[in-house]
C-alpha cells in the first residue's frame, strides 16, 4: 500500500504554500515531517485528509494491485489540539465511537482493554473529558486509531504534550502498529524524528524532499537539517 501525492498545489490568497509537492509514502514505515513554522505541514495534512481541498494535484491510496482504495475511513488524523466532546466521559466517548464505527471495526476489544493499552487509570475512565489533561485527551485521540485502524495515520505534532513516560509509551505503541499503516507525523523535535522515524521528509519551499539516509547517520546531521530548513525562503521571516 502506498499513499501517492502528486503535484499538490495550495495557495491562500496570493500566498503559495504548497508548490507541486509530490511524495510516495509506503506502508510499514513511520515518516517524520519536518518544516519550519508556517511551511505548510498542517495545510498538507488537511489536503491529504480532505479537510481542505488542494487547488491542483492528486492524493491516491493504492493497494498492492495498484487500485485506488481511498475512502472516507482511510485517513485518521490526530490534531495538535484534540477535538473531543468534552461533555462526555472518556468511557462514554469510546462507547459512542465504537458504536458509530461498528461496521468498520475488526478484532474489537473491550473498552477497558483499550483504556489499559493507553494506560488511562480506572478512576479516570468515568470522568468528563473536559477535566482530562491535554496528554489524556491526546491519548483518547490515539486510541481511536487502535479501534478503527485507518490505513493512513496523520499526527500533527503528537507527542509534544506528553510527559517522558507517556511519550515513551506512545512511541512504543506507534512502533507496534506501524507494520499495518502509513504513519506520518509532523514535529519540531528533531530528536523525536530521528528516534522514532524510518524516514524524514522535509517540507521546504512548498515541496517535499526525503532526507538522505546517509545524512541521518552523519554526526553533523542536526547542523545539516538546520541548513536545509533555513533555506526555506517562504517562512524565513516567520520564526
Ligand atoms: N485558512 C487559511 N487562510 C489563510 N492562510 C492560511 C490558512 N491556513 C494556513 N494559512 C497560511 O499557510 C501557511 C502554512 O500554514 P500551516 O499551518 O500549514 O503551517 P505549519 O507548517 O503547519 O506551521 P506550524 O509549524 O507553525 O504549525 C502559513 O503562512 C499560514 O498563515
TrEMBL record:
The keyword Thylakoid does not apply. GO terms for molecular function: ATP binding; ATP hydrolysis activity. The keyword Translocase does not apply. Keywords: ATP-binding, Nucleotide-binding, Transport. PROSITE patterns: ABC_TRANSPORTER_1, ABC_TRANSPORTER_2. Pfam families: ABC_tran. InterPro entries: AAA+_ATPase (IPR003593), ABC_transporter-like_ATP-bd (IPR003439), ABC_transporter-like_CS (IPR017871), ABC_Transporter_VariousFunc (IPR051782), P-loop_NTPase (IPR027417). Residues 3-228 form the ABC transporter domain. SUPFAM superfamilies: P-loop containing nucleoside triphosphate hydrolases. PANTHER family: ABC TRANSPORTER ATP-BINDING PROTEIN ALBC-RELATED. This is ABC transporter ATP-binding protein. It comes from Inconstantimicrobium porci.
Amino acid at each position: 500500500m502506498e499513499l501517492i501525492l502528486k503535484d499538490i498545489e495550495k495557495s491562500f490568497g496570493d500566498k503559495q504554500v504548497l508548490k507541486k509537492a509530490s511524495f510516495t509514502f509506503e506502508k510499514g514505515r513511520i515518516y517524520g515531517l519536518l518544516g519550519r513554522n508556517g511551511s505548510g505541514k498542517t495545510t498538507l495534512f488537511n489536503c491529504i485528509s480532505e479537510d481542505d481541498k488542494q487547488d491542483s494535484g492528486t492524493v491516491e491510496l493504492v493497494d498492492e494491485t495498484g487500485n485506488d482504495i481511498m475512502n472516507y475511513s482511510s485517513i485518521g488524523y490526530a490534531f495538535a489540539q484534540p477535538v473531543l466532546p468534552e461533555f462526555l466521559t472518556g468511557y462514554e466517548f469510546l462507547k459512542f465511537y465504537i458504536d458509530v464505527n461498528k461496521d468498520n471495526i475488526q478484532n474489537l476489544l473491550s473498552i477497558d482493554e483499550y483504556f489499559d493499552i493507553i494506560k488511562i487509570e480506572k478512576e479516570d475512565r468515568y470522568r468528563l473529558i473536559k477535566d482530562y489533561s491535554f496528554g489524556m485527551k491526546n491519548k483518547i485521540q490515539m486510541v481511536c486509531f487502535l479501534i478503527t485502524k485507518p490505513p493512513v495515520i496523520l499526527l500533527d505534532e503528537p507527542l509534544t504534550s506528553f510527559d517522558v513516560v507517556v511519550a515513551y509509551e506512545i512511541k512504543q505503541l506507534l512502533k507496534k502498529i506501524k507494520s499495518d499503516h502509513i504513519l506520518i507525523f509532523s514535529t519540531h523535535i528533531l530528536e523525536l524524528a530521528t528516534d522514532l522515524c524510518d524516514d524524514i521528509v522535509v517540507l521546504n519551499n512548498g515541496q517535499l524532499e526525503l532526507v538522505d539516509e546517509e545524512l541521518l547517520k552523519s554526526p553533523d546531521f542536526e547542523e545539516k537539517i538546520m541548513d536545509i530548513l533555513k533555506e526555506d525562503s517562504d517562512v524565513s521571516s516567520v520564526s
